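Hi everyone,

Forwarding the result from last night's run.
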Amino acid sequence: MLEIQSLDVFHGRLQVLWDLSLAVGDGECVTVLGPNGAGKSTLVESVMGLNRPARGSIRFEDEEITGLKPNDVAARGIAIVPEKRELFGRMTVAENLALGAYGHGGEVDARVYDLFPVLAERRDQLAGTMSGGEQQMLAIGRALAARPRLLILDEPSLGLSPLYVSTVLESIAALNREGLTVLLLEQNVRSALEYSDRGYVLENGRVVIEGPSAALLEDPRVQASYLGL
């Protein structure tokens, strides 16, 4: 579904991604792991059209999308939950969700409320008054309201309590089981690998390890660098 080949991306004169290649198959949940500064967010921004690669190719459903504007990328069926969530705090839950569903006449898919019942209970609450975990559910719900074929999540567990981390990751796994293709970028290595099919490890903008998630959990390099084993 998503295929990235030989991607080089710069911020000014600084090269951030180096010859990066990865793929996400239809119906897969693929995780990209790595510490802060590894290039995960730059990768997402490049897919979404916020960065123009100096070299390489990004294809979605066999169509070249490299260099397209963000709204054109979104129109093709890719939705993102950014690291900073970027909700409209002075708007209600229902209004935030309706913005996500703008391309569908503002009609929010019922599965958003089925997945996160708290959003149904708090339709009229201002988004800015919700807890961090509830805001993350709203951010995911707003992305789902666009009815994407590929959902990209950038650090969805960042800053959440352990309870909300489990809730959010389990909801992502449930969406994937229903057939939604997911690209998950995470620092929470163990949890991300437990909920995904395959993984890539980024260090300094390069893919250094890749493979099935179960194999990465047993990889001595991953265990030593990321799991403290």
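Residues 162-177 form the longest helix (16 residues).

Cheers,
N.
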